[in-house]
Amino acid sequence: MQAVIFASLLLWRRPPIVAGDLVGSLVAYVVSIIFLFILGVAAHAAWSLTRGSLRSYWNAIRTREWIVLSARLCVLQMAMATFYSVLKLFIPLFNPGSFDRELWELDRLLFFGLSPNSFFLELFRIPAVLRFIDFIYGHIFFAFVMLAPAYFISRTSSTRRVAFFWGNALLWSTAVLMYNLIPSIGPIYRFPEVFSGTDSFFPNSRHLQIVLMKNYAGFIKVLQGVAPANLSIAFGVAAFPSMHVGFQSYVAMWVSRESRRAGLLIWLLTGITIVGSVATGWHYFVDAIAGLLLAWFFFVVARTIERRYEMESGGETTNAQASDDVLV
To answer: What is the pTM of this model?
Structure first.
């Protein structure tokens, strides 16, 4: 499937520059996943050392079964990231339509005639508050994208690792399919007048929004037969559903099983992310709702996978199980 997708782009009036840009992005994905794997193991080992259980953790992760499973999960993560990024970038090719107006009106229907984007802007219209929301929205999500996979892949529990990563892969893959079925670019691009005069409040968001729109416009040029430089596979544009909200919610559900306090903190940050996604213009409010529902559904799916995996393995126990629960 991915080979067909790449071929459709690279053979579209033969833009040779695009090939190098896409390959460069894929190499960056591989390096990032390997780095996160090493980071997670190092962090887990450091924590185990403080608890006096480093030897048991080392004995668990040096087994053939643990290493092979880790490699498979890294490949799964790589395949999911590639599938998601390519299909998100290719939305204008697969479905050039737009549902922005419909999503805007659905938002207004849910808010009794008001636009949630305008409502949140006015509700929190204190420069310091809006800049704080922009900072949280612009940095916390990327921290989750890096730290959550690193944490779960370095666990000793095979069942927990398999369940988290399969649920995560299904979550992101379903989201990108929805992007293509219900394409939208977001209120900041479709209704820029609503956000007039707010650039100074959202420096992080505005910078990234400009970068993504340049990449989006560059891909449109590719479809027209022009090959722009610096096209990134990671900078597709889509709004419905919000994966900022979806992924953070998915992580919050998993973490809440292990630590109530850590889970509450992540849910609090997710709430700020919901407000930020709407106030900064990245998303409609219904995007956040869709992200939450997707996260809940695939968390349930992942828990089902976990229970079945445990039944098939006859109930997994390891001598490093105590060092595996790092969030207590």
So the answer is: 0.83
